[in-house]
Each structure stands twice: as structure tokens, then as C-alpha cells.
Amino acid sequence: MLWQGDATRPAVPAPRVGDEAELLMAARKGDAQAAHRLGRLYAQRGDRGAARHWWECAAGSGNVDSAYNLGLWHEKHGTLDEALGWYERAAAAGDAEAALNLATLLQEQRGDPGRARMWFERAARSGSRPAARRLALICEDTGELGAAREWHRQAAADGDAASAHDLGFLAYSAGDDEETVRWWETACRGGHAGAAYCLGLLLQAGRDPEGAEAYYRLAAKSEHPGAAARLGAIALARRDLRTARGWYEQAAYAGRLEGQRMAGFVCVELGDAKGASHWFGRGAAAGDPESAFNFGLLLIAEFGDLKGGRHWFRQAALAGHHRAAVELAGLLSAAGRGAEAEEWLTDPPPPVWDRPAEPELAARAELAALATDRRGGVALDVGQLTELLGTWDLVTRPLLDHGEVIPWLVARSGLHTSAVEHLASVRGTLLRPGSAPWPSPVEVEHVLATARELRGRLGLSSAARDGTGVPHHQ
Asked: How far is it, in rounded angstroms, from Cα 474 to Cα 467?
């Protein structure tokens, strides 16, 4: 923040060097406007002491702009109490920028949310867009969603794309698709890449792949990693491997694990072992068990590195990767370490979910994760949500009439009715937001255990690959 502050505030004509003598004469006679302009003149020269002196003279005679500038001056120099005093003086006289700065200092430096909110409201009611947005976020944090919407609307109507994006999520979580689209489109027009990506997901969830792709491309122009990963999946489905690699690598360079993993798979398909090693290695080092498993396979098959393969199988197995545990046990047994191998074979992790998810289900899963990740919330895990939705889709495919789906699943699996009903309830919330509050991470883990038990009792495999060996990760 510039200490000379009001150099960008156009209400008062900017002083010129030739005005100094005339301004000095008028200021010494008590002309507050002259004193204010004289302060600006000295600020432009870098004479901070003289600028402060004349602003104090002007502020003492009631000049609001000088009071505001003194607030900036003291904030810049670390004298917070004085900054608060001058900002409050200007804010009380109706200066919206001073009220915004005062509220920000009270909230961030003084830890006084009550007074901060009062001044944010004063600034917002005077037309401050940043204050309206800050108020909206405060209201979201305190659970006042009606007030949050009103303040977000004020900010969005004044051109704040982030508030339009947030309004879209509030509407999505309430189950209002029409309002969701309206606000995300507004945010898109304001250049918000995240809103374009969310619109793509919403259209994907609504079985409009062409419309979804158009918004993914719009988001990708701003280098949105999620959009790049989605476009990579679209190109891969078309068997355009080079285009898929380009998109996945764009997502991968931005740190998206899915992009790193899938870039590795596409490099395998293209016969580029070095590229595959790079991306699987990046994903493995970042903690992705599927990348670690495939990195281990690649090190052994392409480079004959048994020690490296064993290391990454172990890392993947420790993270719960079933096939990695089995491969690790085989390597240990071959190395004469039968007891350790037996430990992995006796109690291996359950098989990971590796089936192709319907694109609309994967989109719903990611939208739920994004919706719960806002404002410091605990994000739901996209992979878990996708597995949950995919499991229900898998186990109910043989059923023509879904009206009696719960009794049918209970009869076939032997699971308790309440467990299947809970799974169905969480699934319904993910597919129809607003029908119930978002599930908690603990609740998701609970119903996911039910989903896995259901698959096991029905004898349905968790893993599936297409004819190319490249797994589907939408």
C-alpha cells in the first residue's frame, strides 16, 4: 500500500511544483485544502516528514483526505494505534476506503472481529466492493448464509468475479442449478477460470460432454490444472495420445497428482520409458500410491532395477495399494525373505478401486469435493466419492426396476438394511446437492467401507483396465 495514498484519489487536483509558495502561504493562514495539497506535494518529493506535518494540519481542520493519508502513513511506518485513529476519523466522516482499511486492520492486526465487521458494513454500504466481499466471507464463516448471499451479490454486481464464483457454489450446495449456472457464467465473463471449470463439471454431470469440453478449454486458457486433466482424459478417450500427453503434462507441471500419474501412463503407451519414469517418479514422490506402484513396475521392467522397484512397491503398499503388496511379497520371496513376504500376503491391503467411472459421476464427485473445500472446510476426497458412486452404479446395473433397490441389495449381500440405506443416502446427496447437508469425511469413510463390503459379498472386482492397459481415471 502506498504511504502517500491519495495520489490516486482524484477528488483534489494534484499540486505542481510551481504551486509551492502559493500553497505555503495559504496553508499558514489555515487553509485546510492548501495544507492537504502541500502534503501531497512533499509526498511526491519523498519528504515524508513534511508531508505528515501538513496533513496533520489539514486533518486538524477537518480535511478527510488528509486523515486517510495519515492512516496510510502510520500503517506504512508500523505505528498501528495512530493508523487506526486516523482511519477511524476519516471513516467516521464517510470515507469508504478508510473504513475498509480500518476494518482490515481491526480484523487482521487487532483480532477485533466485532468492530471490524461494523466498519466493513459501513464501507460496503458506501459502495466498497472489497468490503462487501469481506463481509460475505465473514457471514459464511459464521453460518449466516442469507446475509452472505446478499453481500456476495453486491460485490458480484459491482464486478467481483470471485463473489460470483462463491454464489455459484452456495447455489449448487442448495440444489439450485439455475442459480448456479447464472453465477458461474457471470464469474466466467469476469475471467474466473475456476468458474469455467466448475461449469464444465456441471455440464459433464448433466451428460453434456460437448458443452463441458468448451468450458474446460476456456478454463485451460488460464492454465487451470483440473481443466487440463479433463481435456487430457477427453483426448485419451479419442486415442489422441500426443494431445492427451500435452494436456496431462500441463496439469502435472502445475502439481496435480492425477496429471502426473496419467502423463506417466500415456508415456508408456507412446513407448517413452524415460518420460514415464519421470512422471511416475514425480507422482510417487508426492505420495500417490498408484504412481509409486507403476514406477516400481517400470524400474524393474525397463531398467532392471529390482532394488528401486522393491522400494516403490513398499511405499505404495504402505499407502494401501493391494497389487503393490502382492508384487512386493513376490520380490521378497524371490530374495529369500519368506517371512517378510508372508506378512504382506497374510494381510494385504484391500484392492484399490480402478474401474472406469462414468464421467458424470466423476464430475459430481469433484464438484462435491470443491464445494466442501471452501472457506477452510475439510474437503471430501474425490477418489473416495468416485469409488462410492461407481460402486453403486456397478452393483445396481443388473436391476431393471430401481424402485426396490435397497431390499434387493440387502437380500443379495446379506448386509444390514441400515448400512445399505446409509450408503444410498450419501449417494443421493452427492448426486442431488441440497437434498441433505454434505456428508462429513468420517461419514464418507463409513459408507465407503459398506460399498467395499458390498462389492466383496457380490463377488465384483474392484479393478478394470481397457485393452491398452491404461486405466481410466476421469
From this structure: 17
Cα-Cα end-to-end distance for the chain: 44
Which amino acid is residue 64, in one-letter code? V
User: Worst-scoring range by mean pLDDT, 38-42, 219-223, 306-310?
Assistant: 38-42
Instruction: Check if the beta carbon of residue 216 is closer than 8 Å to that of residue 250.
Output: no
| Domain boundaries along the sequence of the chain | 6-178, 190-346, 362-457
Structural contact between residues 410 and 453, judged by C-beta atoms closer than 8 angstroms: no
CB 152 within 8 A of CB 136: yes
Is 281 in contact with 295 (CB distance < 8 Å)?
Answer: yes
Contact 40, 85 (CB under 8 A): no
Distance (Å, whole) CA 446 – CA 388:
11
Average pLDDT of the residues in 450-461: 89
Q: Strands of 37-117 (E only): list them.
A: none
- Give the 3-state secondary structure of 99-144: HHHHHHHHHHCCCCHHHHHHHHHHHHHCCCHHHHHHHHHHHHHCCC
| CATH C-level class of 190-346 | mainly alpha
- Please count the other Cβ atoms lying within 10 Å of the Cβ belonging to residue 121: 18
Facing residues of 463 across strands? 354
Q: Where are the alpha helices (DSSP H) in 190-335?
A: 193-205, 209-220, 225-237, 241-253, 257-269, 273-285, 289-303, 306-318, 322-334
Grid cell digits, residue 60: 486538524
Q: Which residues contact 223 (CB under 8 A, 6 or more apart)?
A: 193, 250, 254
Distances (CA, A) of 285 to 177, 255, 278, 279: 39, 12, 11, 10
Predicted TM-score (pTM) of the model is: 0.85
Architecture of domain 6-178: Alpha Horseshoe (1.25)
pLDDT at 2: 38
* One fold for 6-178 and 190-346: yes
Q: Which long-range contacts (CB under 8 A, 24 or more apart) does 38-43 make?
A: 39/66, 39/69, 40/4, 40/6, 40/7, 40/12, 40/14, 40/15, 40/69, 41/15, 41/16, 41/17, 43/3, 43/4, 43/7, 43/69
Interacting residues of 368 by C-beta distance below 8 A, sequence separation 6+: 380, 385, 430, 433, 438
Cα distance between residue 295 and residue 386, in whole Å: 24
- Residue 94 backbone dihedrals phi, psi, to 5 degrees: 105, 10
On the question of pLDDT at 471 being above 50, the answer is no
| pLDDT tens figures, 190-208 | 999 999 999 999 999 999 9
The one-letter amino acid at 41: L
